[in-house]
Amino acid sequence: MDISKQTVKACHRSLLELKSSLINRSISIKTEYQKQDHGKDEGDLTMAILAEKEFLTSQNRIRIQLQDIEFALAKIQNGTYGICEETFENISEQRLITIPWTRLSLEGAEIREQSRMGRYA
């Protein structure tokens, strides 16, 4: 069963909206971080280090999400959107609507998880 054009369009819209939201959130977080007063005493320095760590962690999380979104948008562009990278079967439309940046079907996700667990066992 191929993925309907309606689903692809809906996912495309969702991906673009999410991308815009993440970019705005990233800018907002950066602006807030830059506004912070980094005082001179040891306690202030500790707080500044913690704030920087939190800032970098959130920016990295956003960067990874944006990469996933860009990858999904590229797959829509080249006609491979909705194909599981593990099983090469179509990903269910409901899964794509729920997680439009997903690269894996449920079965593919389970296979990947089992593979990861096997490496760490």
Number of helices: 4
CATH superfamily: DksA, coiled-coil domain
Percent helix, as a range, is: over 70%
Largest sheet: none
**Global geometry:** elongated
Name of the CATH architecture = Up-down Bundle
CATH topology: Four Helix Bundle (Hemerythrin (Met), subunit A)
CATH class: Mainly Alpha
The whole-number mean of residue pLDDT values reads: 92
Low-confidence stretches: none
- Report the span from N to C terminus: 37 Å
Topology:
Elements: H1 5-35, H2 42-78, H3 93-98, H4 106-120
Helix pairs in contact: 1-2
What's this model, at a glance?
The protein is mostly helical and 121 residues long.
List the defining traits of the structure above.
121 residues, mainly alpha, Four Helix Bundle (Hemerythrin (Met), subunit A), 4 helices, 0% strand, elongated
